[in-house]
Amino acid sequence: MMKLKNYIYGEWVEGSGDGTQLYNSVNGEKVAVVDTKGINFEHALDFGRTVGYKNLASMTFYDRGEMLKNIALYLLERKKKYYEISYKTGATHADSWVDIEGGFGTFFTYSGLAKRMLPNTPFWVDGDTQKLGANGTFLGTHILTPSEGISVQINAYNFPVWGMLEKLSTSLLAGVPSVVKPATPTSYLTHAVFEDIIESGILPEGSLQLICGSAGNMLEYMKDGDSVLFTGSASTGKKLKSMPSIAQNSVRFNMEADSLNCSILGLDAKLGTPEFDLFIKEVRNEMTTKSGQKCTAIRRIIVPENLIAEVQNALIKSLDQVKIGNPLSRETRMGALAGKDQFAEVSEKIELLKTETELIYDGKQDLVDANYESGSFMSPKLFLNDKPFEKNISHDVEAFGPVSTIMPYKDAEEAAALAKRGKGSLVGSIISHDEKFVAETAWKMATTHGRIFVLNRDNAKESTGHGSPLPTLMHGGPGRAGGGEEMGGLNGLHFFLQKTAIQGSPDILTAITKVYQQGATPTYSEKHPFRKYFEEVEIGDSLETAGRTVTEADIVNFGNVSWDHFYAHTDSTSLNGTIFDKTVAHGYFILSAAAGLFVSGKKGPVIANYGLENANFFKPVYAGDTITVYLTAKERINKGVKGRNVPSGVVKWLVEVVNQREETVCIATILTLVAKKSPFIKIDYKDFAKRLNNLTEKTLPNWGRMKAQEMLEHLEATMKYSTGELETSECKTPTEHIEMYQDSLYNFRKMPQDFPAPFLEDDKLPDLKYKNLEEAKTHFIESVKNYQIYYRENPDAEHLHFVFGTLNKEMMELFHQKHVTHHFEQFGLVAG
Question: 256 catalytic, yes or no?
Answer without folding.
Answer: yes
